[in-house]
């Protein structure tokens, strides 16, 4: 592929899109759900689509393109990549971007050149710069953030450092690693106490609210750290923003690269949920209300949109991002985090915000693919 690879409506053939999903992280099922939605939305008259699943053990397979197979049917019936399918990989030649399928007792056969990859992976080993680095080495175009932006944004501790350096307000926090906890639990508890209770304990490089606990007092800290360390040996302890409103804003680049912002939306949690946990996010019977757009003063909306662009540019992001905020009772706005591959089903906040702004789901998918097809494969 050269930097002048034509877009879907300009070349002699439709661009081939490899939709990659699943992965080894704890967010495997959510990635499958996202992929099902994107596979259903891609315009097959404009693109050839190859669904590629990454099994939980890391094997790449040629997956089914049936979106119905990738839905959450029940809390205990989450979708998963079928690891028994035919294995697939990029061709080993340095100049090739062919996908090669290998099956037991069969010679490898190729699916042809890949023009762009749509990596719909959430969490480590997919959203954190690792797979982006592989695509960069292979000279393959892909949707979304590059290596640096993916890595920085995935690690909540370093994300806060970068955002604060860019002059963006963030909540106070500290990190506790498994090594620090093993060596000096007293010191770790003292650092937590300096933040005050309640606080949140989060896997530093996780998402979908998996492994997160609200720690009401010191008696709950040890258990919360142990729970978070089930998913990441590095834990972020973060101050609690009491009575804050949770507001999100989408960022999407125009075809000339200019970052544009959606109307913000607000998440309101009720029932037994104290925060926006996994069940509140993904199980429809749970008590979650999404106000799209959010009921905010024009000045606050403008501030959130401006800070979203600043956060996007601070981490050197590309393509898309969702920036999450807390609007405090005194009116101050602080950045919670930036997510370089947000939930991407039609009912997820990111697509819903853009739909309210005038960009529907199929158009959103097409814009991201067009952006990826237009960018260079070298240093940018």
The overall strand count is 17
Helix content: 25-40%
Q: What is the H-and-E element order?
A: EHEEEEEEHHHEHHEEHEEEEHEHEEHH
Biggest β-sheet strands, sense, barrel: 6 strands, antiparallel
Structural class: alpha+beta
Low-confidence runs of at least 5 consecutive residues: 1-11
- What is the general shape? globular
Task: Describe the structure using short key phrases.
single chain; 380 residues; alpha+beta; six-stranded antiparallel β-sheet; four-stranded mixed β-sheet; 11 helices; disordered N terminus
Kindly describe this structure.
- The protein has 380 residues and is α+β, with helices and mostly antiparallel strands.
- It has eleven helices and 17 strands.
- The chain has helices at 28-41, 130-138, 147-154, 156-165, 178-183, 185-195, 221-229, 278-282, 298-314, 349-357, 361-374, and strands at residues 16-22, 48-54, 60-62, 87-90, 98-102, 109-113, 116-119, 173-177, 199-203, 213-215, 234-239, 245-253, 259-261, 265-269, 288-291, 320-327, 333-339.
- Strands 12, 13, 14, 15, 16 and 17 form a six-stranded antiparallel β-sheet that branches. It has a four-stranded mixed β-sheet with strand order 3-2-1-7. Strands 8-11-9-10 form a four-stranded antiparallel β-sheet.
- Strand 2 and strand 3 form a beta hairpin.
- The radius of gyration is 21 Å and the shape is globular.
- Mean pLDDT is 87; it is low at 1-11.
């Amino acid at each position: 592929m050269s930097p002048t690879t034509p877009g879907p409506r300009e070349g002699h053939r439709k661009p081939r899109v490899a939709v990659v999903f699943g992965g080894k992280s704890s967010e495997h099922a959510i990635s499958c759900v996202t992929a099902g939605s994107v596979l259903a939305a891609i315009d097959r008259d404009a693109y050839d689509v190859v669904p590629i699943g990454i099994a939980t053990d890391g094997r790449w397979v040629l997956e089914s393109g049936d979106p119905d197979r990738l839905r959450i049917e029940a809390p205990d019936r989450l979708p998963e990549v079928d690891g028994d399918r035919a294995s697939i990989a990029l061709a080993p030649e340095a100049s090739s971007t062919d996908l090669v399928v290998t099956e037991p007792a069969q010679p490898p056969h190729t699916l042809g050149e890949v023009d762009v990859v749509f990596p719909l992976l959430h969490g480590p080993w997919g959203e954190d710069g690792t797979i982006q680095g592989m695509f960069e080495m292979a000279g393959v175009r892909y949707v979304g953030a590059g290596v640096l932006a993916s890595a920085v944004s995935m690690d909540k501790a370093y994300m806060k450092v970068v955002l604060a350096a860019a002059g963006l307000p963030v909540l106070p926090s500290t990190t506790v690693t498994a090594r620090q906890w093993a060596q000096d639990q007293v010191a770790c508890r003292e650092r937590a106490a300096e933040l005050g209770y309640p606080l949140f304990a989060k896997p530093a490089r996780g998402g979908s609210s998996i492994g997160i606990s609200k720690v009401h007092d010191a008696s709950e800290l040890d258990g919360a750290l142990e729970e978070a360390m089930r998913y990441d040996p590095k834990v972020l302890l973060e101050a609690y923003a009491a009575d804050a409103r949770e507001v999100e804003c989408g960022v999407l680049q125009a075809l000339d690269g200019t970052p544009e912002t959606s109307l913000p939306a607000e998440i309101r949690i009720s029932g037994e949920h104290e925060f926006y946990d996994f069940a509140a996010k993904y199980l429809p019977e749970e008590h979650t209300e999404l106000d799209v757009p959010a009921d905010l003063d024009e000045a606050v909306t403008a501030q959130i949109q401006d800070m979203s662009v600043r956060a996007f540019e601070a981490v050197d992001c590309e393509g898309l991002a969702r920036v999450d905020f807390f609007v405090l009772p005194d009116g101050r706005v602080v950045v919670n985090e930036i997510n370089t591959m947000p939930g991407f089903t039609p009912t997820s906040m990111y697509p819903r915000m853009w739909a309210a702004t005038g960009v529907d789901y199929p158009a959103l998918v097409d814009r991201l693919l067009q952006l990826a097809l237009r960018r260079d494969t070298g240093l940018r």
